[in-house]
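Worked problem 6 (solution included).
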Amino acid sequence: MNADTDTMTLMAGRVRDAARAGTPLRIRGGGSKDFYGQALTGEVLDMGAYSGVISYEPSELVVTVRGGTPLAELEALLAGQGQCLPFEPPHYGPNATVGGMVASGLSGPARASSGAVRDYLLGAVLLNGKGECLTFGGQVMKNVAGYDVSRLMAGTLGTLGVLLELSLKVLPVAPGEATLMCSGLSQQKALDLLNRWGGQPLPLNASCWVRDESAAPVQDFLFVRLRGALAAVEAACPRMIADVQAAGGQAVPMEQPQAGDDWNACREQTLPFFAQPPSLDACLWRLSVPQTAPAMDLPYAPLVEWHGGLRWLWAPASAAAQLRQLAAQAGGHATLFRRAALMPANLPVFTPLSPVQSRIQRELRKQFDPAGIFNPGRMPIDG
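Solution. The predicted structure is:
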């Protein structure tokens, strides 16, 4: 057997031993997203040794890698061929892995226009809670008859299995790109423009509205990124600048290197907005709502991404009920994304599931992990 087969065999044996003993296992890639989820419990099952690219066909726009492969390594490989992961997965640290990318299900600024992690997941090989190696999907889009189990793995935080291999669809880097910095637009005016642009044939790729409270007076900014054919981007810019001016704001194109750095900072949450406030009870909340939802009556100014569909907010844990009610009224939900230094240990991180959703997740868990050994307590099904 080769080293990879040996590693897989050892992991399968460890899973079987843990299932027999009822020993919880915590599946871990690079640990960059350990902060995310309800709780971390169990013995660490380190995926770092199971890494590497299995196959890459640039002409077919598909790559297959092992779960422990560093995300930065995969992105560098794709960039060398002028290709990318269009959903811009956040790293949140230098040790992020491809398995962690899928398990967390998190996407970056382009998600609203380009799709989510699950939309690019073609196939998966995983170890279930019995130590069995299961294969789902393949390396083409139309490869599933029945339930698409491989895409089910996105966002499950490792509660259904150990992700051994992942096949992903990739895309060429867009030839044209531009970023407009718009000032003087309130949150509602920005949302109105984004909704209007969303109904037009514009190469709108990402957006970010934020309030700069460090300035005097306070200023509101909307950043809009365009990606696509060079001619389409060039034609859209003056048209959108005119729309911003008609709404009472001003818009100017940004220099591309600075714009690229800013979008990466948004993706990695290193913008000033994401700096931990001095208050020890400040939590970072993630409100997922329809893009058409109006500006919400939130206790603090948010940062708005995804053309209005994602709203980040710093607020105390005590605001949980209020935030979840506001999100539900808008047709969405609220997640406690980053905890405060001081907060109740039993506060649900995720919006509680409905009875039907809970039953579905429990039944899925029973099928994939009958002994309940994988990442127990990390998802609401364990609550």
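Discussion: The chain has three domains: 3-172+369-382, 176-272, 276-338.
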